[in-house]
Protein backbone atom coordinates (compact mmCIF):
# COMPACT_ATOMS: atom_id res chain seq x y z
CA UNK A 1 0.00 0.00 0.00
CA UNK A 2 2.81 2.35 0.84
CA UNK A 3 4.47 1.59 -2.47
CA UNK A 4 1.21 2.11 -4.34
CA UNK A 5 0.63 5.50 -2.72
CA UNK A 6 4.16 6.58 -3.54
CA UNK A 7 3.74 5.56 -7.16
CA UNK A 8 0.50 7.48 -7.50
CA UNK A 9 2.00 10.64 -5.96
CA UNK A 10 4.96 10.53 -8.36
CA UNK A 11 2.72 10.14 -11.41
CA UNK A 12 2.62 13.36 -13.48
CA UNK A 13 -0.71 15.06 -14.05
CA UNK A 14 -1.93 14.94 -17.69
CA UNK A 15 -1.68 18.35 -19.48
CA UNK A 16 -5.08 19.92 -20.29
CA UNK A 17 -6.03 19.79 -23.96
CA UNK A 18 -5.57 23.20 -25.77
CA UNK A 19 -8.82 24.95 -26.65
CA UNK A 20 -9.18 25.67 -30.40
CA UNK A 21 -8.65 29.32 -31.42
CA UNK A 22 -11.81 31.33 -32.03
CA UNK A 23 -11.27 32.92 -35.46
CA UNK A 24 -13.61 35.20 -37.43
CA UNK A 25 -14.65 33.66 -40.74
CA UNK A 26 -16.35 35.29 -43.74
CA UNK A 27 -18.07 33.80 -46.74
CA UNK A 28 -16.56 34.63 -50.12
CA UNK A 29 -18.86 37.17 -51.76
CA UNK A 30 -19.85 36.73 -55.38
CA UNK A 31 -21.32 39.83 -57.00
CA UNK A 32 -20.99 42.43 -59.74
CA UNK A 33 -18.35 45.05 -58.96
CA UNK A 34 -17.91 48.52 -60.47
CA UNK A 35 -14.23 49.35 -60.06
CA UNK A 36 -13.22 52.98 -59.67
CA UNK A 37 -9.84 54.45 -60.52
CA UNK A 38 -8.66 57.59 -58.77
CA UNK A 39 -7.18 60.54 -60.64
CA UNK A 40 -5.73 63.71 -59.20
CA UNK A 41 -7.69 66.80 -60.19
CA UNK A 42 -7.91 70.52 -59.51
CA UNK A 43 -11.02 72.61 -58.98
CA UNK A 44 -12.04 75.72 -60.91
CA UNK A 45 -15.05 77.98 -60.60
CA UNK A 46 -17.88 77.73 -63.08
CA UNK A 47 -16.48 81.05 -64.29
CA UNK A 48 -13.21 82.56 -63.05
CA UNK A 49 -13.15 86.15 -64.31
CA UNK A 50 -10.07 88.31 -63.87
CA UNK A 51 -10.61 92.00 -63.15
CA UNK A 52 -8.24 94.16 -65.23
CA UNK A 53 -8.10 97.96 -65.49
CA UNK A 54 -8.93 99.39 -68.92
CA UNK A 55 -7.44 102.82 -68.26
CA UNK A 56 -4.35 103.84 -66.35
CA UNK A 57 -4.44 105.90 -63.19
CA UNK A 58 -4.34 105.88 -59.42
CA UNK A 59 -6.71 103.60 -57.49
CA UNK A 60 -8.95 105.92 -55.53
CA UNK A 61 -11.02 103.42 -53.54
CA UNK A 62 -11.93 99.76 -53.02
CA UNK A 63 -15.68 99.36 -52.64
CA UNK A 64 -16.10 95.72 -51.58
CA UNK A 65 -15.12 93.30 -48.83
CA UNK A 66 -12.41 90.87 -49.87
CA UNK A 67 -13.50 87.23 -49.86
CA UNK A 68 -17.19 88.14 -49.99
CA UNK A 69 -19.96 87.53 -52.49
CA UNK A 70 -20.47 90.33 -54.98
CA UNK A 71 -23.28 90.85 -57.48
CA UNK A 72 -23.07 91.63 -61.17
CA UNK A 73 -22.76 95.40 -61.72
CA UNK A 74 -21.54 96.13 -58.17
CA UNK A 75 -18.87 98.84 -57.95
CA UNK A 76 -15.51 97.30 -57.05
CA UNK A 77 -12.74 99.86 -57.73
CA UNK A 78 -12.59 103.52 -58.67
CA UNK A 79 -9.67 105.04 -60.57
CA UNK A 80 -9.00 108.78 -60.18
CA UNK A 81 -11.44 110.27 -62.75
CA UNK A 82 -10.10 113.85 -62.87
CA UNK A 83 -7.78 113.40 -65.90
CA UNK A 84 -10.56 111.68 -67.83
CA UNK A 85 -13.14 114.26 -66.79
CA UNK A 86 -10.77 116.92 -68.16
CA UNK A 87 -10.50 115.00 -71.45
CA UNK A 88 -14.29 114.80 -71.59
CA UNK A 89 -14.64 118.53 -71.04
CA UNK A 90 -12.06 119.18 -73.76
CA UNK A 91 -13.87 116.89 -76.16
CA UNK A 92 -17.19 118.62 -75.46
CA UNK A 93 -15.53 122.00 -76.16
CA UNK A 94 -14.01 120.74 -79.40
CA UNK A 95 -17.38 119.41 -80.53
CA UNK A 96 -19.05 122.75 -79.79
CA UNK A 97 -16.35 124.53 -81.77
CA UNK A 98 -16.74 122.35 -84.85
CA UNK A 99 -20.53 122.59 -84.60
CA UNK A 100 -20.21 126.41 -84.78
CA UNK A 101 -17.83 126.06 -87.73
CA UNK A 102 -20.30 123.74 -89.41
CA UNK A 103 -23.10 126.27 -89.01
CA UNK A 104 -20.94 129.01 -90.60
CA UNK A 105 -19.72 126.91 -93.51
CA UNK A 106 -23.24 125.65 -94.19
CA UNK A 107 -24.53 129.21 -94.20
CA UNK A 108 -21.74 130.34 -96.54
CA UNK A 109 -22.39 127.41 -98.89
CA UNK A 110 -26.15 127.97 -98.89
CA UNK A 111 -25.58 131.65 -99.86
CA UNK A 112 -23.14 130.74 -102.60
CA UNK A 113 -25.55 128.45 -104.44
CA UNK A 114 -28.02 131.18 -105.71
CA UNK A 115 -25.18 133.63 -106.33
CA UNK A 116 -23.37 131.08 -108.46
CA UNK A 117 -26.53 130.57 -110.53
CA UNK A 118 -26.56 134.34 -111.22
CA UNK A 119 -22.83 134.26 -111.93
CA UNK A 120 -22.36 136.71 -109.05
CA UNK A 121 -19.60 134.44 -107.71
CA UNK A 122 -17.28 132.14 -109.54
CA UNK A 123 -17.55 128.37 -109.61
CA UNK A 124 -14.19 128.28 -107.86
CA UNK A 125 -15.66 130.13 -104.87
CA UNK A 126 -18.70 127.81 -104.83
CA UNK A 127 -16.49 124.71 -104.83
CA UNK A 128 -14.36 126.17 -102.04
CA UNK A 129 -17.44 126.85 -99.90
CA UNK A 130 -18.73 123.33 -100.48
CA UNK A 131 -15.36 121.85 -99.53
CA UNK A 132 -15.30 123.90 -96.32
CA UNK A 133 -18.80 122.67 -95.52
CA UNK A 134 -17.86 119.00 -96.14
CA UNK A 135 -14.74 119.41 -94.00
CA UNK A 136 -16.89 120.74 -91.17
CA UNK A 137 -19.23 117.71 -91.47
CA UNK A 138 -16.22 115.38 -91.23
CA UNK A 139 -14.90 117.35 -88.26
CA UNK A 140 -18.24 116.88 -86.50
CA UNK A 141 -17.92 113.09 -86.88
CA UNK A 142 -14.35 113.12 -85.55
CA UNK A 143 -15.23 115.39 -82.63
CA UNK A 144 -18.28 113.24 -81.77
CA UNK A 145 -16.09 110.11 -81.80
CA UNK A 146 -13.54 111.81 -79.52
CA UNK A 147 -16.33 112.82 -77.16
CA UNK A 148 -17.74 109.27 -77.09
CA UNK A 149 -14.26 107.85 -76.42
CA UNK A 150 -13.75 110.33 -73.57
CA UNK A 151 -17.06 109.24 -72.02
CA UNK A 152 -16.06 105.56 -72.30
CA UNK A 153 -12.68 106.19 -70.69
CA UNK A 154 -14.33 108.12 -67.87
CA UNK A 155 -16.73 105.20 -67.41
CA UNK A 156 -13.78 102.83 -67.14
CA UNK A 157 -12.71 104.69 -64.01
CA UNK A 158 -15.54 102.86 -62.23
CA UNK A 159 -14.74 99.12 -62.34
CA UNK A 160 -17.81 96.96 -61.70
CA UNK A 161 -18.29 93.21 -61.22
CA UNK A 162 -18.88 91.47 -64.59
CA UNK A 163 -20.57 88.49 -62.88
CA UNK A 164 -22.00 87.55 -59.50
CA UNK A 165 -19.71 85.39 -57.41
CA UNK A 166 -17.02 85.17 -54.78
CA UNK A 167 -14.29 87.80 -55.02
CA UNK A 168 -10.76 87.15 -53.84
CA UNK A 169 -8.02 89.19 -52.18
CA UNK A 170 -7.24 92.45 -53.93
CA UNK A 171 -3.82 92.72 -55.52
CA UNK A 172 -3.83 96.52 -55.28
CA UNK A 173 -4.66 99.09 -52.63
CA UNK A 174 -5.88 102.67 -52.70
CA UNK A 175 -3.06 104.87 -54.00
CA UNK A 176 -1.52 102.21 -56.26
CA UNK A 177 -0.97 103.16 -59.90
CA UNK A 178 -2.43 100.72 -62.42
CA UNK A 179 -2.39 100.50 -66.19
CA UNK A 180 -4.18 98.34 -68.76
CA UNK A 181 -2.71 94.99 -69.79
CA UNK A 182 -3.12 91.25 -69.36
CA UNK A 183 -0.48 91.22 -66.60
CA UNK A 184 -2.28 93.86 -64.57
CA UNK A 185 -4.85 91.84 -62.59
CA UNK A 186 -6.68 93.63 -59.79
CA UNK A 187 -8.71 90.66 -58.56
CA UNK A 188 -10.62 87.53 -59.63
CA UNK A 189 -14.30 86.67 -59.25
CA UNK A 190 -15.42 83.03 -59.28
CA UNK A 191 -18.94 81.80 -59.90
CA UNK A 192 -19.29 78.86 -57.50
CA UNK A 193 -22.76 77.68 -58.54
CA UNK A 194 -21.13 74.64 -60.14
CA UNK A 195 -17.46 73.77 -59.82
CA UNK A 196 -15.32 72.41 -62.64
CA UNK A 197 -12.73 69.72 -61.88
CA UNK A 198 -9.99 68.98 -64.38
CA UNK A 199 -8.07 65.71 -64.29
CA UNK A 200 -5.96 63.68 -66.70
CA UNK A 201 -6.00 60.10 -67.98
CA UNK A 202 -3.01 58.40 -69.52
CA UNK A 203 -3.22 57.66 -73.22
CA UNK A 204 -3.33 53.87 -72.55
CA UNK A 205 -6.15 54.20 -70.01
CA UNK A 206 -8.07 56.53 -72.32
CA UNK A 207 -7.80 54.10 -75.25
CA UNK A 208 -8.92 51.15 -73.10
CA UNK A 209 -11.94 52.98 -71.69
CA UNK A 210 -12.84 54.44 -75.09
CA UNK A 211 -12.87 51.01 -76.72
CA UNK A 212 -14.86 49.51 -73.84
CA UNK A 213 -17.47 52.27 -73.84
CA UNK A 214 -18.00 51.91 -77.59
CA UNK A 215 -18.67 48.18 -77.41
CA UNK A 216 -22.24 47.04 -77.93
CA UNK A 217 -24.07 46.74 -74.59
CA UNK A 218 -20.96 47.99 -72.77
CA UNK A 219 -21.26 47.95 -68.98
CA UNK A 220 -19.30 51.22 -68.87
CA UNK A 221 -21.90 53.25 -70.76
CA UNK A 222 -23.05 56.10 -68.55
CA UNK A 223 -20.06 55.75 -66.20
CA UNK A 224 -19.17 59.38 -66.84
CA UNK A 225 -22.54 60.52 -65.46
CA UNK A 226 -21.75 59.59 -61.85
CA UNK A 227 -18.29 60.63 -60.70
CA UNK A 228 -17.22 60.75 -57.07
CA UNK A 229 -14.91 63.26 -55.44
CA UNK A 230 -12.57 62.76 -52.48
CA UNK A 231 -11.36 65.87 -50.66
CA UNK A 232 -7.87 66.45 -49.28
CA UNK A 233 -8.94 65.33 -45.76
CA UNK A 234 -10.07 61.96 -47.12
CA UNK A 235 -13.80 62.71 -46.88
CA UNK A 236 -16.13 61.95 -49.78
CA UNK A 237 -17.87 64.97 -51.30
CA UNK A 238 -21.64 64.40 -50.96
CA UNK A 239 -22.50 65.45 -54.52
CA UNK A 240 -21.76 63.38 -57.62
CA UNK A 241 -20.52 64.94 -60.83
CA UNK A 242 -20.57 64.24 -64.53
CA UNK A 243 -18.07 64.48 -67.37
CA UNK A 244 -18.47 67.77 -69.26
CA UNK A 245 -15.91 67.27 -72.02
CA UNK A 246 -12.47 65.96 -72.95
CA UNK A 247 -9.68 67.98 -74.50
CA UNK A 248 -9.27 67.80 -78.27
CA UNK A 249 -5.78 66.34 -78.07
CA UNK A 250 -3.41 64.24 -76.02
CA UNK A 251 -0.65 66.37 -74.54
CA UNK A 252 2.53 65.20 -76.33
CA UNK A 253 4.72 66.26 -73.38
CA UNK A 254 2.86 64.15 -70.79
CA UNK A 255 1.08 61.54 -72.90
CA UNK A 256 -2.17 62.33 -71.08
CA UNK A 257 -5.56 63.76 -72.03
CA UNK A 258 -7.42 66.28 -69.89
CA UNK A 259 -11.04 65.75 -68.86
CA UNK A 260 -13.35 68.19 -67.14
CA UNK A 261 -16.19 67.23 -64.81
CA UNK A 262 -18.86 69.44 -63.28
CA UNK A 263 -20.02 69.15 -59.66
CA UNK A 264 -22.92 70.94 -57.95
CA UNK A 265 -21.72 73.20 -55.14
CA UNK A 266 -24.82 74.26 -53.17
CA UNK A 267 -22.96 74.81 -49.88
CA UNK A 268 -19.96 76.56 -51.51
CA UNK A 269 -17.68 73.94 -49.92
CA UNK A 270 -15.57 73.60 -53.07
CA UNK A 271 -13.30 76.53 -53.91
CA UNK A 272 -11.06 77.12 -56.94
CA UNK A 273 -7.54 75.76 -56.57
CA UNK A 274 -8.32 72.70 -54.42
CA UNK A 275 -6.54 69.43 -55.23
CA UNK A 276 -8.95 66.50 -55.12
CA UNK A 277 -9.21 62.83 -56.08
CA UNK A 278 -11.68 62.05 -58.85
CA UNK A 279 -13.26 58.58 -58.70
CA UNK A 280 -14.23 57.29 -62.14
CA UNK A 281 -15.64 53.83 -62.92
CA UNK A 282 -13.12 52.32 -65.34
CA UNK A 283 -14.00 48.60 -65.14
CA UNK A 284 -16.98 46.40 -64.33
CA UNK A 285 -16.48 42.80 -63.17
CA UNK A 286 -19.57 40.60 -63.38
CA UNK A 287 -20.19 37.87 -60.80
CA UNK A 288 -16.70 38.13 -59.34
CA UNK A 289 -15.29 36.89 -56.00
CA UNK A 290 -14.62 39.38 -53.20
CA UNK A 291 -12.81 38.90 -49.88
CA UNK A 292 -11.51 41.34 -47.22
CA UNK A 293 -8.03 42.70 -47.81
CA UNK A 294 -6.95 41.87 -44.26
CA UNK A 295 -7.62 38.17 -44.81
CA UNK A 296 -4.92 38.01 -47.51
CA UNK A 297 -1.34 37.13 -46.54
CA UNK A 298 1.41 38.26 -48.92
CA UNK A 299 4.92 36.80 -48.81
CA UNK A 300 7.47 37.45 -51.55
CA UNK A 301 4.80 38.19 -54.12
CA UNK A 302 2.72 35.11 -53.27
CA UNK A 303 -0.80 35.76 -51.95
CA UNK A 304 -2.46 33.22 -49.67
CA UNK A 305 -5.59 32.87 -47.55
CA UNK A 306 -6.76 30.38 -44.91
CA UNK A 307 -9.75 28.45 -46.24
CA UNK A 308 -12.03 26.72 -43.73
CA UNK A 309 -12.38 23.01 -44.50
CA UNK A 310 -13.98 19.96 -42.88
CA UNK A 311 -13.83 19.46 -39.12
CA UNK A 312 -13.17 23.23 -38.67
CA UNK A 313 -9.65 22.74 -40.00
CA UNK A 314 -8.06 25.52 -42.10
CA UNK A 315 -5.66 25.07 -44.97
CA UNK A 316 -3.58 27.66 -46.75
CA UNK A 317 -4.66 28.40 -50.34
CA UNK A 318 -2.72 30.42 -52.95
CA UNK A 319 -4.94 33.01 -54.67
CA UNK A 320 -4.55 35.52 -57.47
CA UNK A 321 -5.85 38.90 -56.33
CA UNK A 322 -7.09 41.44 -58.84
CA UNK A 323 -7.87 45.11 -58.25
CA UNK A 324 -8.72 46.44 -54.80
CA UNK A 325 -12.36 47.30 -54.20
CA UNK A 326 -12.92 49.50 -51.15
CA UNK A 327 -11.50 47.39 -48.27
CA UNK A 328 -11.61 44.16 -50.27
CA UNK A 329 -9.85 42.41 -53.12
CA UNK A 330 -11.28 41.02 -56.33
CA UNK A 331 -10.01 37.41 -56.50
CA UNK A 332 -9.36 36.21 -60.04
CA UNK A 333 -8.25 32.65 -59.24
CA UNK A 334 -7.89 30.24 -56.30
CA UNK A 335 -11.36 30.35 -54.71
CA UNK A 336 -14.77 28.90 -55.49
CA UNK A 337 -18.37 29.58 -54.61
CA UNK A 338 -19.20 28.80 -50.98
CA UNK A 339 -15.64 29.03 -49.64
CA UNK A 340 -15.19 30.50 -46.17
CA UNK A 341 -12.08 32.49 -45.37
CA UNK A 342 -10.46 32.85 -41.95
CA UNK A 343 -9.59 36.44 -41.10
CA UNK A 344 -6.35 35.46 -39.36
CA UNK A 345 -4.73 38.28 -37.45
CA UNK A 346 -2.78 35.95 -35.15
CA UNK A 347 0.57 34.20 -35.52
CA UNK A 348 -0.89 31.12 -33.76
CA UNK A 349 -2.93 30.25 -36.86
CA UNK A 350 -1.09 27.68 -38.97
CA UNK A 351 -1.83 25.50 -41.95
CA UNK A 352 -3.94 22.61 -40.67
CA UNK A 353 -5.02 24.37 -37.45
CA UNK A 354 -8.39 23.41 -35.98
CA UNK A 355 -10.35 26.54 -35.05
CA UNK A 356 -13.64 27.57 -33.55
CA UNK A 357 -15.09 29.53 -36.49
CA UNK A 358 -17.06 32.70 -35.74
CA UNK A 359 -19.03 33.53 -38.87
CA UNK A 360 -19.39 37.25 -39.50
CA UNK A 361 -21.08 39.31 -42.20
CA UNK A 362 -18.84 41.40 -44.44
CA UNK A 363 -19.63 43.85 -47.21
CA UNK A 364 -16.99 45.98 -48.95
CA UNK A 365 -16.62 49.33 -47.23
CA UNK A 366 -18.92 48.41 -44.31
CA UNK A 367 -18.16 47.44 -40.74
CA UNK A 368 -18.14 43.71 -40.09
CA UNK A 369 -21.07 42.40 -38.07
CA UNK A 370 -22.09 39.08 -36.60
CA UNK A 371 -24.74 37.29 -38.71
CA UNK A 372 -28.29 37.45 -37.53
CA UNK A 373 -29.66 34.18 -36.28
UniProtKB/TrEMBL annotation:
Pfam families on file: Beta-barrel_RND, BSH_RND, HH_MFP_RND
Which part of the chain is the Multidrug resistance protein MdtA-like beta-barrel domain?
Answer: 195-280
* Transmembrane stretches, start-end: none
The Multidrug resistance protein MdtA-like alpha-helical hairpin domain is annotated at 88-156
The record's InterPro entries line, in alphabetical order, gives: MdtA-like_b-barrel, MdtA-like_BSH, MdtA-like_HH, RND_pump_MFP
Occurrences of domain Multidrug resistance protein MdtA-like barrel-sandwich hybrid (ranges):
49-187
PANTHER family per record: ACRA/E-RELATED COMPONENT OF DRUG EFFLUX TRANSPORTER
Similarity section: Belongs to the membrane fusion protein (MFP) (TC 8.A.1) family.
Query: What is this protein's record name?
Result: Efflux RND transporter periplasmic adaptor subunit
Which organism is this entry from?
A: Flavobacterium taihuense
Lineage start: Bacteria, Pseudomonadati, Bacteroidota, Flavobacteriia, Flavobacteriales
Amino acid sequence: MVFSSLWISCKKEAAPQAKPLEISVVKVLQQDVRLESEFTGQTFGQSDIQINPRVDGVIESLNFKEGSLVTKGQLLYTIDPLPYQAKLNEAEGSLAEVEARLAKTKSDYDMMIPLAKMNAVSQRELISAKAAYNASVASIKAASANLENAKIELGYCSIVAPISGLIGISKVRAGDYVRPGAASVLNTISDLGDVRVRFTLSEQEFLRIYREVNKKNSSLKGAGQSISLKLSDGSIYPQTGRISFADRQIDPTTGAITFEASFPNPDKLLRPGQYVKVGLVTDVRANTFLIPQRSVIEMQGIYQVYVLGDSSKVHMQIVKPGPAYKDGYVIEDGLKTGDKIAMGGTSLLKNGSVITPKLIEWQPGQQETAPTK
